[in-house]
């Protein structure tokens, strides 16, 4: 049996036609055999699971990276050279690189082991069982067994397991916040819609994944499984492509650049060596090839993927300590690049708890402080505490007490947390009444004896209570829409007296309603009158709802989070734009946005979902550039907004962070550069679809995460600057050493090939300096306030032109210092020395190592001096000290002398080596001074 929604919109079809289309019986429900037949034909009421990916494929996916491809090539060449060299011993170089590659893959696989179960989480939201009418009997059946045509029996607290057309309703209200973003309960009725409406305004439909907050009703199932609105969201998750993060895009570019550079470097060095020395024997062929491979390995920072993963993992731990749980490593840095935050309103920027904030009577207006369901706060008039004994105090108490009596909600404290059972608006009255304190009537004074429930047609609710403090006098108390209630009022309460309601007073009261509505308050009025005992004892009907005395009016809001405004201001200071995207009413959204500082008095009005739907792609891009508030939007609208921000061709690509807590947020959370879900109030769906979860639901945590992300990116640039400039020094040392061999006296007198560094020494330098110091710089403290600058543009490279200039400069200086030291101790060069080739080469080898260690301090910032907080990073000092001690061992331990062809150096030579290596630091300081004085400091590094 196909779903009705497959063919038409059931909200536009009358009840009789729906019953005929589904061949159903609204009185007895479906028969058991018919249910079995439809279940066999249409399948169970379950959301389709997302395609599973085997663990082995997830692990292999970790190797899908240009840098990893480069390292695989280096492993292959190393093995070939090892084989040509006789396959003696272990191919140490190939083994070391292989271990590094595998460890990096394991790190990535472990961090991302939690597969995305967004669709399975959507299925978990469905009710386990549902009450249906079958064979004329109410039954509780598993939700998977629901079929189109089933008659749902709905009661307060029930979760809805399928989309259904309402056939009858008594005060039926639904919580649809998780599906539509609507913060207030939505009234439902059987009245057929006259025109198509957005999801949040389909008053004759109930939807899977929502819940009944009040009343009762019956509804006929029109769609199950993937045909439901919930299923469509699951389908969006299936088809939504997850974009690579900025860091992933940048690292891919770095990998491609380094790949080309390595091929060029290896080819040029090998060709230069062959041209200068020639190749006269197989041994020399092996030497040249080994030199080329060594240089290739030296040029490629093979530790970069592992160091990058470790640095990001450390960032993940730091962010977790601040209640931001990141599920993927690359997402940490993405926050630092975020230029737009698209935030849901309900439960994210607001508390998701309806609150009475104003009480308006003919005597004046009272402000109710405190937010949420915790009854902390007081009543103020003109900024001072309200006098409970005054006429205004008395009438305010009447309004709040009357509104509480005309309701069925319960507010209670459980484990220090205040929870609500029932309608949130009724709960708001209860909480406000508790804030009356001593002015509130004593508990038990009023006893309810009858109720006329709220309906969407009546737009009001009435109760009859007995006032035990006044000889059990029956009192009618009504609560409802102000305009509806005023039509039933003939009098108005003014303090402790009741006056006739003349036209002028009626007009003034309506003006008060308009004033609150213009401020985006939801308004409810309260009225009352005494009832004679005879009528009170008779069956109640709406005939008692006349000649009421208008008591007062309340303004209700879902209040903004206290910390959200400060967080938004901090985001703006950091150049991050914040957009509010909600399913709530445009006027409410605009008011909340104004309170939070998102928009000013002259800002554009909130854009509705209907307006968005009418826009083409260019119009949408123009709208998202200038508007910050969007209301009554659908999940598809959210996706369009995110994609429009990401594809704006007239400016730099925006890096979009999307926050949310409901089912409706999940597709946009997945499509955004980084999705941020709420940990407390968020649904399982949003948490699984997002890349980051706020454990404390605190919008301010996002700002801290952005700061952390920017700091991590700065550290990535630090160790890239260090690795590339150090490796550049190695490459230029060998290249220039070969080219200038005759100038610096690099010869053994026989005309044979003589190199400034041996392959084993190059690999040792690479192992010694490319690991611990670079990793230590990955956790370097911030050198400045990262939030003073705008976010990094997506067009800005991790390694930009200025960084490349610094890399080349430091590489040239390192090579010059190394070769000058070799020349200093070799005879026959510019600086005529007297030492042996091994001694001079050892000195040059040591200078190259020490120069890279000095460069570690130099690379901490592009412009800030290395002497600014020099001891802030104790890990860097530990790494440098360890590397220096290992170099001393290579120079002075006999067994290592044999392995690396080194000779012990004298104390004087060590001093010379330290002095020559320090030139790198002084040249770097001079460059930084020039950059600072030129007024072009790099903002984040």
Number of helices: 34
- Give the oligomeric state of the chains in this entry, treating copies of one chain as homo and distinct chains as hetero: single chain
Report the radius of gyration as a whole number of Å.
37 Å
What summary fits the major beta sheet?
11 strands, mixed
The overall pLDDT average reads 81
Distance between the termini: 63 Å
Structural class: alpha+beta
**Uncertain spans, ≥5 residues at pLDDT below 50?**
114-127, 937-941
Helix amount: 40-55%
Count of individual beta strands = 28
- Beta-strand percentage? 15-25%
Outline? elongated
Notes on the protein architecture:
The protein is α+β, with helices and mostly antiparallel strands and 941 residues long. It contains 34 helices and 28 strands. Strands 10, 11, 12, 13, 16, 17, 18, 19, 20, 21 and 22 form an 11-stranded mixed sheet that branches. A hairpin with a 7-residue loop joins strand 16 and strand 17. Helix 4 runs antiparallel to helix 10 (282-299). It is elongated and about 125 Å long. The protein starts with 14 loop residues before the first helix and ends in an 8-residue tail after the last helix. The model is unreliable at 114-127 and 937-941 (pLDDT under 50).
């Amino acid at each position: 049996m196909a779903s009705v929604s497959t063919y038409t919109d059931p909200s536009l079809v009358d009840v009789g036609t729906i019953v005929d289309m589904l061949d159903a019986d609204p009185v007895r429900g479906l028969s058991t055999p018919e249910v079995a037949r439809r279940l066999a034909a249409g399948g169970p009421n379950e959301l389709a699971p997302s395609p599973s990916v085997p663990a082995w494929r997830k692990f292999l996916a970790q190797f899908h990276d240009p840098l990893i491809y480069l390292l695989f090539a280096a492993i292959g060449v190393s093995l070939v050279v090892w084989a040509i060299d006789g396959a003696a011993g272990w191919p140490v170089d190939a083994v070391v690189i292989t271990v590094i590659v595998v460890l990096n893959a394991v790190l990535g696989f472990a961090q991302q082991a939690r597969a995305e179960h967004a669709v399975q989480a959507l299925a978990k939201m469905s009710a386990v069982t549902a009450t249906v009418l079958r064979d004329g009997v109410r039954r509780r059946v598993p939700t998977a067994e629901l079929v189109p045509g089933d008659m749902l029996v709905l009661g307060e607290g029930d979760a809805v397991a399928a989309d259904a057309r309402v056939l009858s309703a008594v005060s039926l209200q639904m919580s649809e916040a998780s599906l539509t973003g609507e913060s207030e309960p939505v009234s439902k009725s059987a009245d057929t819609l006259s025109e198509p409406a957005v999801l949040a305004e389909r008053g004759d439909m109930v939807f899977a994944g929502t819940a009944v907050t009040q009343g009762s009703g019956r509804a006929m199932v029109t769609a199950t499984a993937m045909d439901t609105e919930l299923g469509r969201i699951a389908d969006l998750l299936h088809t939504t492509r997850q974009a690579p993060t900025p860091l992933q895009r940048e690292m891919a570019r770095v990998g491609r650049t380094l790949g080309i550079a390595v091929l060029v470097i290896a080819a040029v060095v090998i060709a230069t060596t062959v041209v200068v020395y020639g190749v006269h024997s197989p041994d020399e062929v092996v030497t040249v090839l080994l030199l080329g491979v060594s240089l290739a390995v030296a040029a490629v920072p093979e530790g970069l993927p592992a160091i990058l993963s470790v640095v990001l993992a450390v960032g993940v731990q730091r962010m977790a300590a601040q209640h931001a749980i990141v599920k993927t490593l690359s997402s940490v840095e993405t926050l630092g690049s975020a230029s737009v935050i698209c935030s849901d309103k309900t439960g994210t920027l607001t508390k998701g708890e309806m609150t009475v904030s104003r009480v308006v009577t003919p005597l004046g207006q009272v402000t109710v402080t405190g937010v949420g369901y915790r009854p902390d706060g007081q009543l103020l008039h003109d900024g001072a505490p309200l006098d409970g004994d005054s006429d205004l105090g008395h009438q305010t108490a009447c309004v709040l007490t009357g509104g509480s009596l005309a309701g069925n909600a319960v507010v209670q404290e459980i484990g220090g947390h205040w929870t609500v059972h029932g309608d949130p608006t009724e709960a708001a009255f209860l909480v406000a009444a508790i804030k009356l304190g001593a002015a509130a009537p004593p508990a038990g004074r009023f006893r309810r004896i009858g109720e006329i429930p709220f309906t969407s047609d009546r737009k009001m609710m009435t109760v009859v209570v007995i006032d035990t403090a006044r000889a059990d006098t029956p009192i009618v108390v009504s609560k409802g829409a102000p305009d509806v209630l005023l039509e039933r009022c003939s009098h108005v309460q003014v303090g402790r007296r009741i006056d006739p309601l003349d036209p002028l007073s009626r007009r003034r009261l309506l003006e008060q309603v308009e004033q609150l509505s213009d401020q985006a308050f939801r308004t409810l009025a309260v009225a009352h009158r005494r009832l004679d005992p005879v009528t009170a004892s008779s069956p109640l009907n709406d005939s008692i709802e006349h000649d009421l005395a208008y008591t007062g009016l309340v303004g209700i809001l879902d209040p903004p989070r206290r910390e959200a405004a400060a967080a938004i201001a901090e985001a703006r200071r950091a150049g991050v734009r914040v957009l509010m995207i909600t399913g709530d009413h445009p006027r409410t959204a605009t008011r909340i946005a104004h309170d939070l500082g998102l928009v000013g008095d002259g800002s554009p009005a909130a854009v509705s979902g209907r307006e968005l739907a009418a826009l083409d792609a260019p119009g949408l891009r123009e709208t998202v550039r200038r508007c910050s508030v969007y209301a009554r939007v659908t999940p598809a609208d959210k996706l369009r907004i995110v994609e429009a921000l990401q594809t704006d061709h007239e400016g730099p690509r925006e890096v979009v962070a999307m926050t949310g807590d409901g089912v409706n947020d999940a597709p946009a959370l997945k499509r955004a550069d980084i999705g941020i879900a709420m940990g407390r109030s968020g649904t399982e769906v949003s948490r699984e679809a997002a890349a980051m979860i706020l454990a404390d639901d605190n919008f301010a945590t996002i700002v801290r995460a952005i700061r952390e992300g920017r700091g991590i990116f700065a550290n990535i640039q630090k160790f890239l600057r260090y690795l590339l400039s150090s490796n550049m020094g190695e490459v230029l040392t060998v290249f220039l050493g070969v080219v200038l061999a005759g100038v610096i006296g690099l010869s053994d007198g026989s005309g044979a090939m003589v190199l400034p560094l041996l392959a084993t020494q190059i690999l040792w330098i690479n192992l010694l300096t490319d690991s611990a110091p670079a990793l230590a710089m990955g956790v370097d403290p911030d050198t400045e306030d990262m939030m003073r600058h705008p976010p990094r543009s997506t067009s800005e490279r991790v390694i930009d032109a200025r960084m490349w200039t610094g890399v080349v400069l430091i590489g040239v200086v390192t090579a010059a210092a190394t070769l000058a030291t070799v020349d200093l101790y070799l005879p026959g060069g510019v600086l005529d020395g007297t030492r042996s080739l091994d001694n001079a080469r050892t000195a040059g080898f040591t200078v190259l190592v020490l120069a890279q260690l000095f460069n570690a301090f130099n690379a901490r910032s592009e412009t800030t001096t290395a002497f600014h907080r020099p001891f802030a990073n104790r890990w860097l000092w530990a790494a440098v000290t360890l590397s220096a001690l290992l170099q001393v061992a290579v120079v002075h331990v006999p067994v290592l002398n044999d392995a690396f062809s080194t000779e012990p150096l004298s104390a004087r030579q060590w001093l010379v080596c330290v002095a020559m290596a320090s030139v790198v630091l002084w040249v770097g300081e001079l460059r930084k001074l020039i950059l600072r004085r030129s007024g072009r400091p790099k903002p984040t590094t």
